[in-house]
Every structure is written in C-alpha cells, then in structure tokens.
Design brief:
By secondary structure, the chain is α/β, with parallel strands linked by helices. It has helices at about 50-55, 60, 85-90, 110-120, 125-135, 155-165, 185-200, 235-240, 240-245, 250-260, 275-290; strands spanning about 5-15, 25-35, 40, 65-75, 90-95, 170-175, 200-205, 220-225, 225-235.
C-alpha cells in the first residue's frame, strides 16, 4: 500500500562491514521508505539482504559491533546513536531461523509472546491485549498453552512473528521469515503484512524469490555482492532484465505477460500483472475487446 508520507527509513551513501574485517559487506546509495509502504529486497544468499536488515534494526551496531558509515535514520533515530532498547521499540525483525528468537525460558507460547511487552514495562492489561492480538493475527491462539520448543518449524516462525507483532513496531523487517511455512502459512503472513501496511506500518521483506510477495510490495530492491543495484516500483522492477541477470526468476504471471507482449498479444498500454488473478482479469479484457473488434 502506498505510504502516508511519513518517512520511517532513510539511507544515504551507506557503507557497512563486520568487526574483524575491512571488507565492505553492505553498500547502499539510497533507500527511502514511508509509513504504510512495503519494500521487497531480493538477492541470492550472501548478497547483503540480512546485513541490511540487521543495520535497520540496530543489530549490526549493537550486537555485531560493525562499522557503519553514511546517513541512516530509522523512525527518526540513528541506530549508532540510539540504544538497542530504543531501536526494538520502533523496528522489529523476524529472522530466518526462529529458534534464534525463542528465549527457551518460557513454558508456553502465550508466555513467550508476552516476553517482549513485559520487558518494555507495559501495564498487565496492555500486555494481555497485545499478546492475544498477536496470537490471533498469527493463528496461534489454539497453541497458546503449548511449550514453544515442541512446535513445528512453521509454527515457530509464526511464534517469532507474533513475538515481534506484540511489540507494535513502526517498521517490521522479515528476513526470509516464511522459509519454513507452507503456501497457506506464507499467504497468512502476507495477509498480516497487507493489514499492517494499511494501518501505517512500514514493512521490509527480504527474500530470494519474488513469488508470493509481489502483490504486497510497493517497491523492489535488488542486492548483489552486498550492493544495492536497483530500487524501483514493483512493476518496473519485475519487468527489468536485472532480475534474470542476477539469477532471480520473475513472478510467473509477469514472465508470461512479457512473452505475450513480445508476441504482440499483450498491448503495451496495459500494465503487467503482479498476480495470476490480475493476469486473468487483464486477459479477459483483451479477449473481450478482441471480440468486439471490427
């Protein structure tokens, strides 16, 4: 969903690296993300996606003690000058491996989700309300009394997401956070993303493939060897040859539409589709108009 003109993420001429090495792990000329916008960050493994996510949430500075240069503002704060507590109240990150986010000290899913709000010192009623809302959003209410360590991989990813949602961040960062979910579970997460965006949350999704995320994204960025090589609106990005040039497959609906356009079957004035449903609707229009042609 389009943003609310409140810029939550602003990066300019940023370079970053990890402690113990002079190698630059991340180079970003410019990224800007408004409230309510969703950015899809695509790239192969070790392309710099996770480093970007860690930078935005304060982990690169506070946990990895990395080297960071350039202008960085997240929710009006510079991660280098803000405490980790301040950062996690505005930017929440869900990791690829949910085990790294489960505390292991709580005996139920409900208690695990409550951990974050409790550490923020919220009132008991506020904690209960946030926990129940997060459990409902992630469809974990029926597992609320289960031990987190007995959950499946996909259920643990839902739990990691619920724990972050309970913090109510202004920026939600998903670093391949649906990797262990089936298609139904992945769609559930995308529905949550869409709802949060409508409510003004900025969302960043890091993934190796655009399939399943194209409808939610307002912008697409491509990372290669630690460098941001492209940032554009979703349709332009998916139509660009930079995706296949970087080994990233376009969404199937977009690939088919581009081939149809090359054959003269998809008019230039019609937008390229971001979903199979959108492609079907456009094809129906093309067929209907062709039927009325003289």
């Amino acid at each position: 969903m389009a943003g609310d003109d409140i810029t939550l993420v602003s990066l300019n001429n940023v370079e970053a690296g990890y402690r113990g090495t002079e190698q630059t792990a991340l180079r970003v000329p410019n990224i800007s993300l408004d409230a309510g916008e969703t950015l899809l960050v695509l790239g192969a493994s070790d392309s710099g996606k996770s480093t970007l996510c860690r930078l935005l949430c304060g982990f690169l500075n506070h946990f990895y003690h990395g080297r960071i240069e350039g202008d960085i503002f997240v929710c009006g704060m510079d991660p280098r000058q803000s405490t980790l507590l301040e950062m996690i109240q505005c930017a929440g990150m869900v990791f690829q491996r949910p085990e790294t986010q489960i505390t292991g000290t709580r005996f139920s899913v409900r208690e695990e989700v409550a951990c974050g709000p409790e550490n923020l010192g919220l009132h008991r009623n506020a904690i209960i309300e946030r926990v129940e809302d997060a459990l409902e959003r992630t469809k974990l209410t029926h597992l609320a009394d289960r031990n987190p360590l007995t959950l499946s991989g996909g259920e643990k990813q839902r739990l990691a997401l619920a724990s972050i949602l309970a913090l109510r961040p202004s920026l939600l960062v998903l670093d391949e956070a649906t990797s262990q979910l089936d298609p139904v579970g992945e769609q559930d997460v995308m529905d949550i993303v869409s709802e949060l965006a409508r409510q003004g949350t900025a969302v960043i999704i890091a993934a190796t493939t655009p399939e399943g995320f194209s409808e939610q994204a307002d912008k697409v960025a491509i990372m290669q060897d630690g460098e941001l090589t492209m940032l554009d609106d979703t349709r332009n990005a998916f139509a660009s040859n930079l995706l296949p040039d970087n080994g990233i497959a376009r969404p199937i609906c977009m690939e088919l539409a581009l081939k149809a356009r090359a054959e003269g079957l998809w008019p230039e004035d019609l937008p390229l589709p971001l979903s199979m449903g959108e492609a079907a609707e456009t094809l129906a229009t093309i067929v209907r108009e062709a039927g009325h042609a003289p």
